[in-house]
Amino acid sequence: MSLDKGGDSMKRSFTWVFVGMLVAVFLVDSAFAGIIQTDEAEKWASENGKARQSFSFIVFGDNRPTSPTRPLPEVLDIILKEISLIRPDFAVNIGDLIWGYFGTPKQARDEFSAFTKRVDKYTPDVDMLFVAGNHDTPSEEIQRIYRELFGQKLYYNFTFGNSHFVMIDTNFPRSLLEKGQKYGFYNVNDGEHELAMVDWTKKVLGQNAEHTFVFGHVPVFSALTPDFGEHPKSFTTRGNRDDLLKLLLEKKISAYFAGHEHIFYAQSVGETKFFTLGGGGAPLYGPTTGGYSINTGEGPDYKTLKSDPAIEHGGHAKGHHYDLHFPAGALSIFSYMLVTVDRDKVSYNLMVPHSFEVTYLKGNDGISLESSVVIANTTPYEWTLRGVTFLMPYSEGGYEASGSHVGFRDWKAKPAKVAPEILEVEKVSDSLAKVRVMATIPGSNSIDVFLKVK
Fold first, then answer.
1. What are the respective helix, strand and coil percentages of the chain, to the nearest 5?
2. Sheet order of strands, 432-441 included
3. Which residues contact 269 (CB under 8 A, 6 or more apart)?
4. How far apart are alpha carbons 240 and 287 in whole angstroms?
5. Which domains does the chain have, with CATH numbers?
6. Nearby residues of 230 by Cβ (< 8 Å), 6 or more positions away
7. What is the spatial distance between Cα 217 and Cα 62, in angstroms, rounded to a whole number?
8. Dist. CA 433–CA 420, nearest whole Å
């Protein structure tokens, strides 16, 4: 009897090792699958965005560690997991993946590797594009590594469906700039274009599109040093900033996305919105603050402030380049943004990590014929997640998905108001499949999702 039990135990151990090997092979084969090289962005967009009138994308950035040699922040893992759950059509990272400064090329390569491994682990199925941050390209040597990993073009554009995307570089290494230049909009050529960046940008912004989105690492409107001064945090000079601002407004772009300042901040000029989304895990710049028009996408209206100025003007923040009170509406929080394009309309949703909690209760091991997961939605809004995935035995007969929620009053399970839907079955091997399910979770609620082999 004891020998039989030992044999069963060995069989179970072998099965788990075998499944682990299959999963490991799958992960290795998909390495860097989510990273779209800047040189390939136009081709990628033409293949994936052709004729699209409705789609979504996520913007996030400033994911660097607190200081050299330190690990990447845990909140980055959470953001990437939630991006995978939301499953947008693509994501844009607006820079500062690593510490970078004063490091050797090998140290920078190791730091980049730590970031790309996380992308590969948590978001291998979400296409991701990149804009360089100042920490990513502090020197020409480290810039070469960045370009090797993310593409040779430091400024580039593409058309996805009915929208035009323009990525600029606001932080070339100082060795490529003139004296007195640092962050800003300069006519520097990355060696991959016929036109230097300012001339190129003026040309490509003339392209017709329903919506035009522009991305740069540093914000047009600095919440930390709005009056520039001796040590401006964003654009080095007001004149240089105004040159870009004038161009963006003349071309009537829909929105400009940036990071650099580790906060969330929104400002509008006419119909154009300007977002600072630097809450991707790097150290936050001040206290969590609030005030007028938080997260409306419209920015603060200082003319209507009539309540307590100490609250409306925000909280005190002090750093290397600033010592001031946050403006009303600036939020020193970890966050990312989901942008949804629906024909002629665009919505901007600020998201915070831990919006969703996922706990697999059964299966999801590539062996079990039935799997289940409970998904909690900690926001007050209903969300449809398109990236709920299960590792299942491969079945030619397919799978069946269902869902339930628990009644508040009777504590009994009832069918989910919106039934889960199987979106994709990816055959990993002859015996293993990854099944992607769409699930709608009511605000401030949870649902169970069940998947079984037919």
1. 25, 30, 45
2. 383-393, 432-441, 421-429
3. 245, 249
4. 30
5. 31-351 (3.60.21.10), 356-453 (2.60.40)
6. none
7. 9
8. 18
Residue closest to 57 by CA, chosen among 87, 95, 97: 87
What's the one-letter identity of residue 75? V
Q: What is the pLDDT of residues 165-180, one digit of tens each?
A: 999 999 999 889 998 8
Closest CA to 213 of 177, 150, 163: 163
Torsion of CA 33, 84, 116, 153, to 10 degrees: 70
Neighbours of 408 (CB within 10 A): 7
C-beta of residue 409 within 8 angstroms of C-beta of residue 450: no
DSSP H/E element including 121: helix 105-122
Q: What are 342's two structure tokens?
A: 């629906």
Instruction: State residue 422's pLDDT score.
Output: 98
Distance CA 399, CA 392 (A): 9
Dihedral sign (CA 295, 299, 305, 311)? positive
What is residue 396's three-state secondary structure? coil
Give the separation between CA 78 and CA 454, rounded to whole angstroms: 33
For 291, phi and psi rounded to 5 degrees?
Answer: 115, -165
The tokens describing 114, both together, are: 């730590």
Q: Find the length of the chain.
A: 454
Q: Order the strands of the 413-415 sheet from edge to edge.
A: 356-362, 370-377, 445-453, 399-406, 413-415
DSSP string, 177-192: S-TT--SS------SS
Q: Are strands 163-167 and 211-215 parallel, antiparallel or unpaired?
A: parallel
pLDDT tens for each residue of 133-167: 999 999 999 999 999 999 999 999 999 999 999 99
Summarised one tens digit per residue, pLDDT across range 60-118 is 999 999 999 999 999 999 999 999 999 999 999 999 999 999 999 999 999 999 999 99
Calpha distance 218→392 (Å, rounded) = 44
Alpha-carbon distance of 129 to 209, in angstroms, equals 20
User: Helices H, strands E: what count in the chain?
Assistant: 8, 21
Please give the Cα distance from 410 to 200 (Å, whole number).
63
What are the structure tokens assigned to 453, written together? 């082999």
